[in-house]
Specification:
Elements lengths: L8 H8 L6 H12 L9 E4 L5 H5 L5 E5 L13 E4 L13 E7 L7 H14 E12 L20 H10 L3 E11 L10 H9 L6 E9 L1
Helix pairs in contact: 2-6
Length: 216
Amino acid sequence: MKAAPILDQAEYHNIRFPYDPRRAGVWRVLARYLQPWVDPSQPLLELGAGYGEFTREIRASSKWALDQNPALAAHWDPSVNALFQSALDPWEIPDASLGTVFASNFLEHFTLEDGARILTQVQRKLRPGGRFIAIQPNFRLEPRRYFDDYTHRTAYTDAGFQDFLRSLGWRVEHAEPRFTPFTMKSRIPTAEWLVSLYLALPYRPLAGQFLVVAAR
């Protein structure tokens, strides 16, 4: 029986997530928005770091970035500690050493069971009181496009994801069901002042992703 083909990470990024320099400005604004939940005096890990825009902009005492595609390191800040591996494998980071773990558009690529395994490892690596920050596509807001990404495995809504975290022992500190648009591949303007204005709106039109901040 022929083995199933292995997902080509480089081709995935070329097809679904090609590099776009306009995203740097968007992430600069998002990092400023999220910084109040990130302790700058503690280390930080980003899961599924992609092109490294968030890790580059956020303030932390030291930074780790995990991704399966080593070619992406060409875009990363050279000061970042790189982990090129699956998030399901053990991370070579000391237990109880991180202040923050961040993930954007990440856990939907895993089964619910594998997501629980990853979040358990996140808990182990965080210091007491450390935070997990997640930006996820919201199935409730974008059911028709959610599985356009052929690697999506699990559908999360903002309410379902919070309950999932609570079932694993997390304490949800903050949640925004309508955070950002579903994808940055759209023609929505990316000027920093417009992104800042969008995040300041009481109701965000075209939002398709949620934000959740949880504490260990």
